[in-house]
Amino acid sequence: MSTSEFTLPKIITSRPERPAEGNVPPTQELRRQIKDKVRAYVTEKALIPPIPIDDLKVHALELAEREAIPHDFLNFLAVLMNNQSWEETLAKIPFNRRLLLLPKCLRTEAVCPAPFDEFGLLCKQCGQCSLEDLQLEAEKMGYAVLIAEGSALVMAIIETGKIDAIVGVSCLSVLERAFPYMEAAAVPGVAIPLLQGDCLDTNVDLDWVWDAIHLTHDDKTRRLDLEELRREVSTWFREESLETIMGPASGESEQIARTWLRKNGKRWRPFLAACVAKALAEDPEAPLPEGFHKLAVGIECFHKASLIHDDIQDGDAYRYGEQTLHEIYGEAMAINIGDLLIGEGYRLIAECGADPVAVAEMLRIAAVGQRDLCIGQGRELEWLRTPMPLKVNDVLGIFSKKTAPAFEVALRCGAAFAGADAKVHDAMQRYSEALGIAYQVHDDLQDSGSEHEADDIEALRPSVLLAMAHQRAKGPDKKLLTQLWSRQTGDHPNFSKDVARLYEKYEIVDRAQQLENHYRDQAVKSLQTLESINLKGLLRRVLGKIFDDIEIKDWCREYEARNAADREARAPFTV
């Protein structure tokens, strides 16, 4: 089996992600959660910039006490508060009056060919780090861009009077030194903290940088509450809503199909369609028309049908923590319910009330998506007949056909409903492919070391982590992994532990994380050709929503006892 159209991206051999330093929250999920708390706090307190540094200290400490946020993160909190207070002002400033200030330590120093002059690093656009993409995108938008750092430089730039706002990336210590200059000059600024402060091969939350660069008052979706939109989409799948949207159910088959359609799920596909339709609407804050509800439910019908058929083909007995449909009603009935849902999907699209030309296009998009999904599943089933180790690009090829088409159907149907042109559809296709692969790699990473991964190996489902491990392993390790791929696990009752050991030995999780990050970046890049500011902004935010939608509970408990003990003794922090 071969999927030669896929080659492993260069990002796999790049430097790995590094852990955040102690004064920065350790995971992206925690940083995002803190950012949300800061946003709510600044809104509640109606903080108006410029905020004096002493006041920032007070507010940061108050929020930390209220939310039991570790005091280690007070500087980080203060920076985010300052950012949030300036957000509305920055959004109104034209891009050509802004400066993007990037640190040279984002480069991969050992291989970076870029020279320096008196203004900083002169990027050679070699593709070894994120500086190239950030600089090219910002300059295309009209920004002045410097890859340099230092408070003296910040002051000199401010004094020229040619820059009205600064978007900067830097470590917390440099931000501390630059803050007084920006406060004194009342210069709007958003600063994205580096995750490390040692000035060598540092990391940053790139999606935060992209969001800051593209922040504009013209983006009418900027304040759209994605979680509220997601909750609204979920209401369309209640029993009474489905009866309104689909009409009364007649007979047992329709009742079973409706019950399955109501089953728990993340509803990402109808949510994505709703996001695109909202972004392209004349008034993104206006309610979506009722006809769109039919389209959204139709899109979910396709997805639910694919799950029924997948469960039968994979021999899965449980989904959503309950028995699968074929376990309850038998394979024949389950296949029929899946087919019924596919038919319902096409019917609902046809009845969604959009322009007839748009309806025809949506039906074509859905048909092509259904075809691609079956081809992807077919590749997996063909391989399953004579199992052998898969290369990483083979697994990616399967992902591109099995997962990406469903996202493409959702995004492009939402675009067609809104009357989008060919440029938008082209961008949605590229965004979908990158999103689909990143989503599946993310899923593999989430399952790594869990019973789900053991089930995948036992059932011989393609896994990008297992493919990476097999490609890198040698000697007995490679022999063991070959046996696992070939379903010869009888002599290895503890194969899950063996796999975990090999993942650690060959740094597979880190490499898979780099692969996910690469395709997430590709999804962002695919939006650069879009002319709709609303759509670009919303789909960047959607990426964060999909990949960071993890509820973190009790994450700061380990710090609370220590904070309570040394709260009074702790020295005042600086920003």
Task: Describe what this molecule looks like in 3D.
This is Polyprenyl synthetase family protein. It holds the Pfam family DUF116. GO terms for molecular function: metal ion binding; prenyltransferase activity. Keywords: Magnesium, Metal-binding, Transferase. Belongs to the FPP/GGPP synthase family. The protein has helices at 28-45, 53-67, 74-91, 131-141, 151-160, 172-185, 206-214, 226-235, 239-246, 252-262, 268-280, 290-314, 325-329, 331-350, 356-385, 392-402, 404-417, 422-447, 451-458, 464-472, 475-485, 495-505, 508-525, 533-547, 557-566; strands at 98-102, 116-117, 120-121, 144-147, 165-170, 189-193, 318-319, 322-323. Mean pLDDT is 84; it is low at 549-575. 61% of the residues lie in helices and 5% in strands. Helix 1 (28-45) packs across helix 3, helix 2 crosses helix 3 and helix 5 runs parallel beside helix 6. It is mostly helical and 575 residues long. It has 2 domains: 10-217, no CATH class; 226-543, Farnesyl Diphosphate Synthase (Orthogonal Bundle), CATH 1.10.600.10. The protein contains 25 helices and 8 strands. A hairpin with a 2-residue loop joins strand 2 (116-117) and strand 3 (120-121). The strands form 3 sheets. Strands 4-1-5-6 form a 4-stranded parallel beta sheet, with helices on both faces. The chain is globular and about 75 Å long.
